[in-house]
């Protein structure tokens, strides 16, 4: 390019004047400026970064308590050919259990003009829905999205939201049934819940229906903030609860280690909403694999980035539910799991 530009400059006059123009300070300066712009422009063009899709990730949890889930999502994206930092970028926003932060965090992702927002749980879904009707939103998991008004139907969502549901409300009856099968004399069950979350209502309603059918009394134990946890367990023991059932709620998930520890200290058999609690040391869980659902959410993101509309992507329901039992936790509280319940377990931690 340098040689071509110089030749064009020289050919602009007769051969007799070529040398004099190049040697003339005025013409030499003009030539230098032209050459700089030509080479500089080419350099800028060569260095122009290629646009990559940006995914927003909105979580109620903290990075540490959400680590297995986000890594599963990243693995799902890698399986589809997306490498973070190369041909994909992820903008992370964590509420650290503070629900009041979610609207601002969701707003930040909208202002960044991300291509799609991935959310975990109904509370984060609501926050994202309230700030955009345009940017696609993918639920990695959540309670009944139809009842909560997120989608028109599971088969045809109809808006900018799609993804996966863990069917938390429908599982309440099965969890209570497994608790009663494990504890023959069970009559009172404490329900650990955060009423401030979006999934609270549907899950409580389902539990109440199941409890009546099983002849069980429910005793709500509310945890609106982390400092409420110890008082909630004190209320359980005072109310002579024979067991504990936890709802699928992100604010509780953030406290899973403390919840498991307090259940053990109070020798309270507990049924949890996902296997992460049991792997932490809890007694048992019956649920879809939440971590696997985050990995599956990557397929929705891939389809949307390739041009599919969320309105046309059916919300996926889990096909398999797992009973996970921790025998070490049972021994710690002096509980023997009946053989008929143990035989139904998909996974036993010894």
Folded structure, characterized:
α8 links the parallel β6 (188-193) and β7. The strands form 2 sheets. Strands 7-6-8-9-10-11-12 form a 7-stranded mixed β-sheet, sandwiched between helices. It folds into 3 domains: 2-43, no CATH class; 54-167 and 290-312, Rossmann fold (3-Layer(aba) Sandwich), CATH 3.40.50; 168-287 and 321-349, Response regulator (Rossmann fold), CATH 3.40.50. With 350 residues, it is of the alpha/beta class. It contains 15 helices and 12 strands.
Compact summary:
With 350 residues, this protein is of the alpha/beta class.
What's the domain count? 3
CATH class of the largest domain: Alpha Beta
Q: Segments where pLDDT lies below 50 for 5+ residues?
A: 1-23, 30-48
The largest pleated sheet is described as: 7 strands, mixed
Give, in spatial order, the strands making up the sheet with the most strands.
7-6-8-9-10-11-12
Instruction: List how many beta strands DSSP finds.
Output: 12
Q: Going by CATH, what is the homologous superfamily of the largest domain?
A: Response regulator
Percentage of β-strand residues: 15-25%
Secondary structure tally, helices: 15
Helix content: 40-55%
Alpha-carbon Rg, integer: 29 Å
The assigned CATH architecture of the largest domain is: 3-Layer(aba) Sandwich
Straight-line N-to-C gap? 72 Å
* Principal-axis shape: elongated
Q: Average pLDDT, to the nearest integer?
A: 87
Query: What is the CATH topology classification name of the largest domain?
Result: Rossmann fold
Structural class: alpha/beta
Order of secondary-structure elements? HHHEHEHEHEEHEHEHEHHEHEHEHHE
